[in-house]
Amino acid sequence: MRVDKLLTSVGAASRSEAAKAAARGEIKVNNVTLRRSDVHVDPERDEIIYKGEKIVYKEFVYIMLNKPDGYVSATDDPQEKTVLDLLPEKYKRLGLFPCGRLDKNTLGLIILTNDGTGAHRVLAPKNHVPKTYRFECECKLEDKDIEMLANGITLDDGYVTKDAVIKTDDGAKSGDITITEGKYHQIKRMFAAVNNRITYLERVSFGDIALDGSLERGEWRELTQQEEKLFK
Ligand code: URA
């Protein structure tokens, strides 16, 4: 792989920045200073130093973000703030996209990656990846509502939802709901179908990956190796 491609793929520099850095002697490969940025390197074996910092090569990047209110799950939007706006500049060059969507006012776990194949796999309906949400709703859920939400309910467009798992707290106006699909506004529409209304929604897990409780709203971190394995 060319060293400029490598620097671009980890978000360290653009191609033209890499070329200028090489001309200034700011790129070293195995302790040898390069003068050109089109030199080929082995990202797995060679030690690459860019502006004094060791470059760690990863084919793909996976980020866990605790989404705050008011951000849309898109890569760019003419009017709205997007989840990408919460990441530092270097990540914006990596072609990251949100793996699935949360509504603008839904909070919590969203995974961003540039691994198109991996994202496609976890989002494919046939794989039934469970997603758990903390919810609050306007009216008390009656036993019959809980049963309908759990066993498949007909949405406003005629779609019948797949089985869900729902656990309510004391008072039955809040709880956790796990669904294995991701239709547009699905949980809000499920609650609307039992004449109720969601007033708070936060995703707390995606597959086996749980939202890191130490992340404040708007904060992010890369997935750990263990979480990456779970994602894949
Ligand atoms: N269901 C919804 O209604 N909204 C979300 O953001 C996620 C699931």
The coarse silhouette is elongated
Sketch the topology as an H/E string, one letter per element. Answer: HHEEEEEEEHEEHEHEEHEEEH
Strand content: 25-35%
Total DSSP E strands = 15
Category by helix and strand content? alpha+beta
Mean pLDDT: 95
Indicate the percent of residues in helices: 10-25%
Helix count?
7
Largest sheet: 9 strands, mixed
Report the bound ligands by name, code or SMILES: uracil
Low-confidence stretches are: none
Q: What is the radius of gyration computed over CA atoms, rounded to a whole number of angstroms?
A: 22 Å
N- to C-terminal separation? 24 Å
Give structural notes.
It contains 7 helices and 15 strands. With 232 residues, it is an alpha+beta fold. The longest helix is centred in the N-terminal third of the chain and has 9 residues, at 15-23. The model has no long low-confidence stretch (mean pLDDT 95). Uracil binds next to helix 6. Uracil (URA) binds at residues 102-103, 106, 185-188, 201.
Write the layout of secondary structure elements.
Elements: H1 3-9, H2 15-23, E1 27-29, E2 32-33, E3 48-50, E4 53-54, E5 62-67, E6 71-72, E7 81-82, H3 89-92, E8 97-98, E9 107-113, H4 116-123, E10 131-137, H5 143-151, E11 165-168, E12 174-179, H6 186-192, E13 198-206, E14 209-210, E15 220-222, H7 225-231
Parallel strand pairs: 6-7, 9-13
Antiparallel strand pairs: 1-2, 1-3, 3-4, 5-9, 5-15, 8-9, 10-12, 10-13, 11-12, 13-14
Helix pairs in contact: 1-2
This protein binds uracil.
Kindly list the characteristics that best describe this protein.
nine-stranded mixed sheet, elongated, binds uracil, 232 residues, alpha+beta, four-stranded antiparallel sheet
